[in-house]
Task: inverse folding
């Protein structure tokens, strides 16, 4: 097609390119996570991806959108991968499928499709499923006994009974379940005693989180995201956790533990940075990120759910348009005089 | 070496594509007998010139054919000698494809100048010097074509004269070549402008991707004996759009021209190098603007820079550069802010700095437009610190007031936002549309306003006339009554009858006054 008016030049950039970078940045996390929980994760990613693409194609067609450019934009794939990473790795297949359908159909297409959805689709799926199936969404594999792939697949496909070993504890859930320590044992002691403490945070999880951090740094380096949201998110979470920890180290985990547990890193770099549902102005992004970090901590520690990232991001999504409106930066010639 | 310490937000490092034509020195385009030039009368950003020749007239090169019409307007001249064939509407080199009045001249091939001689501007008053510029048709040759004389401020003092040699758009090399080859005359023009403006400092900004031009300009400045302080050639980092007036002023001085203000209000004024060159030609040789340097580039076998008589049709000019066949269009101006000419026979005008012959592969294919994902890439690229995605959103929704609140009026249509948008949204196209709609709306409002005012004035006048008439009638009636009364008195009428007359007079006066008052109150 002929470009009809200037500019006639265009950077070789595309939405598909952006999404490709995001997927690429998720790979280190995926590999470390797989090494930790087993190859079942790949199966979950595959199930989620196929479901997402099928649902996307179907809805594009029914809504009368051109299927090809939208199906290949990669946005559905990113949503699918985030769901696979946020859900317990041995979730039954139908749970993953339900989550993806929730995300693609309800959270995305019912709101008008790409670019129109006010809520992060992957987090809508997470929140929806955790409310509807709280038990299943809390079944994390027990530490260090990644079952053989065949066995894992049978669990996912619901061919084997869900083993007791599945009701494994994550470092976060242990702290929560134990009501934290008593007067003499701090939370770290509890984790160490249960062999759930690694080098500087939850055993295993700390490396998954580090791999996400690495991927996030790649996104920053490639300028797919800006520093504002992740820095503000991590700062917000570190700041509140520092307050509580300093106040009462027996009952509250230290900031490093919090930052490298659960979905903190994934949330900071991959979820809260979603441009469609987040803020776009620099100041808006700072408030958005900070708010999400603080809320995630509060929900994680004081809420009814194992982790707080999903709800925190959804709550901030609600405020994002308003934050942006108030955080408008001054335009050229509005700062006045010599700057 | 003078360093630049100020930056502007956003901007782009673009592939320059300048080496296609930057190596070719300026060559004159000769006009042959029988060749037809079409010289538009509207070649400035102000009012079109008034034609002062008619079909059949013989004109010489440099002869005025269009007189400036008002203060913001500039004269237009014949760019060769020959016979006027017609003064009529022709298609203009404008994206709208609209037509405008133009003078068509059939060249006699002699290219004979009118008598002309240098003018010593130092012997002229400021007004006369400005008049000379207007009469010589000097306008901003960087593309904005604002009449130069109108940029010499009457009220504000200018302390800093900025000379724009940035030439930040890809492909264009006409200013580069002009600076390399005719730096002396440019600097002479700069001196004249400095003297007219009584500026203390002169900063000549040139992008650092033109080292030869920078060197040549430095030599020329040194030769005129202007000290490094009074006139400095500053190497500016090549970052599009560093050549945009506001951005260049910011880079060179640190001043950010406030929204809605003119540079002169901050004591700064800006002229393009080619404009300075034209100014030098006017005073040092007595030559009005009859030609300009045009870069011919893109899909051509012989790219280069040509000194072209104004009015030369685009296709005839491009033939010199030997386009590789199958042109899919010609872009006038640069690839970021230029436009595709509506027809190949439109003429070269004072604004035409570059012609890019477009063949398949010259520019990337247009990609399908996707929805905005609010990634903010456009905002990070915008040199005016706008939020293009908001402007896009409200323009598309036809909510122009919201777009105005996001300062769509500040958009300089540089195209940075559209260049980076991963959704391939033709953002600038939306902004042009919205600005057009806003302009129309404002015009309509203004027209309605004037119409209302006119109507009200008419009403007021009618009222006033009515009131005046009533007053006149009342006075006449009163006079008559008085006369009758006097007659009666003289006729020895009884006392009480005289009283009745008086009462009648009083009543008539009162009536008249009341009428006048009513008319008056209705006016308000
Ligand atoms: S660059 Fe394009 S997709 Fe990104 S925010 Fe701007 S308009 Fe939207
Ligand atoms: S075209 Fe307008 S909105 Fe886009 S980058 Fe340039 S000034 Fe900003």
Result:
């Amino acid at each position: 097609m002929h470009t009809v008016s200037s500019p006639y030049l265009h950077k070789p950039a595309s939405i598909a390119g952006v999404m490709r970078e995001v997927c690429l940045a998720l790979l280190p996390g995926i590999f470390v996570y797989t090494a930790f929980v087993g190859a079942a994760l790949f199966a979950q990613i595959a199930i989620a991806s196929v479901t997402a693409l099928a649902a996307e194609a179907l809805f594009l067609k029914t809504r009368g959108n051109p299927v090809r450019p939208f199906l290949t934009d990669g946005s559905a794939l990113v949503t699918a991968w985030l769901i696979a990473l946020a859900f317990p790795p041995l979730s039954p297949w139908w749970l993953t499928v339900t989550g993806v359908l929730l995300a693609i159909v309800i959270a995305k297409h019912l709101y008008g499709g790409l670019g129109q959805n006010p809520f992060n689709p992957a987090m809508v799926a997470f929140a929806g499923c955790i409310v509807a199936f709280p038990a299943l969404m809390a079944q994390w594999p027990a530490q260090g006994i990644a079952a053989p792939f065949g066995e894992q697949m049978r669990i996912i496909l619901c061919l084997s009974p869900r083993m007791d070993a599945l009701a494994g504890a994550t470092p976060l859930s242990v702290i929560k379940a134990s009501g934290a320590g008593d007067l003499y044992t701090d939370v770290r002691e509890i984790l160490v005693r249960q062999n759930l403490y690694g080098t500087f945070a939850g055993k295993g999880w700390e490396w998954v989180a580090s791999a996400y951090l690495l991927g996030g740094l790649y996104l920053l380096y490639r300028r797919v995201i800006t520093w504002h949201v992740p820095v503000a998110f991590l700062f917000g979470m570190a700041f509140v956790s520092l307050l509580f920890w300093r106040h009462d180290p027996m009952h509250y985990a230290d900031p490093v533990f919090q930052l490298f547990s659960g979905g903190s890193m994934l949330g900071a770099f991959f979820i809260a940075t979603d441009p469609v549902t987040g803020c776009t102005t620099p100041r808006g992004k700072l408030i958005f990120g900070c708010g999400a970090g603080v809320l995630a901590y509060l929900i994680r520690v004081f809420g009814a759910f194992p982790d707080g990232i999903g709800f925190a991001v959804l709550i901030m999504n609600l405020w994002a348009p308003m934050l942006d409106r108030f955080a408008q930066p001054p335009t050229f010639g509005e700062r006045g005089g010599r700057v | 070496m003078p360093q630049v310490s100020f930056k502007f937000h956003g901007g782009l490092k673009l592939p320059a594509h300048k080496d296609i034509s930057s190596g070719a020195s300026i060559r004159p385009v000769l006009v042959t007998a029988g060749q037809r030039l079409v010289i538009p009368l509207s070649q400035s950003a102000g009012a079109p010139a008034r034609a002062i020749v008619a079909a059949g007239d013989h004109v010489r090169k440099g002869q005025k054919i269009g007189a400036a019409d008002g203060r913001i307007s500039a004269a237009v001249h014949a760019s060769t000698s020959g016979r006027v064939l017609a003064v009529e509407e022709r298609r203009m080199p404008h994206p709208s494809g609209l037509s405008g009045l133009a003078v068509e001249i059939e060249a006699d091939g002699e290219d004979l100048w009118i008598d002309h001689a240098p003018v010593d501007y130092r012997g002229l008053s400021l007004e006369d010097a400005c008049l000379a510029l207007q009469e010589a048709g000097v306008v901003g040759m960087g593309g904005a074509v604002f009449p130069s004389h109108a940029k010499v401020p009457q009220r504000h003092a200018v302390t800093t004269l900025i000379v724009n040699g940035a030439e930040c758009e890809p492909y264009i090399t006409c200013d580069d070549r002009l600076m390399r080859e005719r730096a002396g005359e440019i600097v002479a023009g700069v001196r004249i402008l400095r003297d007219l403006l009584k500026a203390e400092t002169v900063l000549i900004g040139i992008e650092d991707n033109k080292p030869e031009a920078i060197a040549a300009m430095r030599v020329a400045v040194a030769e005129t004996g202007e000290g490094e302080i009074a006139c400095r050639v500053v190497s500016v980092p090549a970052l599009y759009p560093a050549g945009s007036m506001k951005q260049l002023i910011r880079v060179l001085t640190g001043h950010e021209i406030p929204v809605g203000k003119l540079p002169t209000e901050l004591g700064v004024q800006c002229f393009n190098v080619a404009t300075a060159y034209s100014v030098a030609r006017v005073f040092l040789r007595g030559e009005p603007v009859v030609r300009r340097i045009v870069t011919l580039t893109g899909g051509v076998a012989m790219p280069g820079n040509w000194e072209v008589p104004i009015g030369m049709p685009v296709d005839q000019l491009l033939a010199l550069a030997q386009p590789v066949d199958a042109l899919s269009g010609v872009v006038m101006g640069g690839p970021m802010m230029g436009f595709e000419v509506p027809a190949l026979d439109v003429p070269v005008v004072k604004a035409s700095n570059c012609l890019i012959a477009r063949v398949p592969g010259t520019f990337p294919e247009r990609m399908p437009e996707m929805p905005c994902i609010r990634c903010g890439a456009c905002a990070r690229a915008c040199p005016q610190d706008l939020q293009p995605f908001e402007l896009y959103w409200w323009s598309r929704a036809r909510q122009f007031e919201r777009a105005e609140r996001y300062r769509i009026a500040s958009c300089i249509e540089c195209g940075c936002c559209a260049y980076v948008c991963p959704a391939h949204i033709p953002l600038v196209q939306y902004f042009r549309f919205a600005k057009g709609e806003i302009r129309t709306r404002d015009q309509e409002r203004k027209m309605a306003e004037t119409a209302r005012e006119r109507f009200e004035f008419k009403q007021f006048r009618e009222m006033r006339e009515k009131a005046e008439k009533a007053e006149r009638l009342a006075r006449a009636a009163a006079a008559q009554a008085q006369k009758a009364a006097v007659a009666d008195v003289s006729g020895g009428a009884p006392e009480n009858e005289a009283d009745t007359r008086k009462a009648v007079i009083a009543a008539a006066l009162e009536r008249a006054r009341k009428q006048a008052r009513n008319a008056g109150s209705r006016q308000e």
Remarks:
- Residues 15-37 of chain A form the longest helix (23 residues).
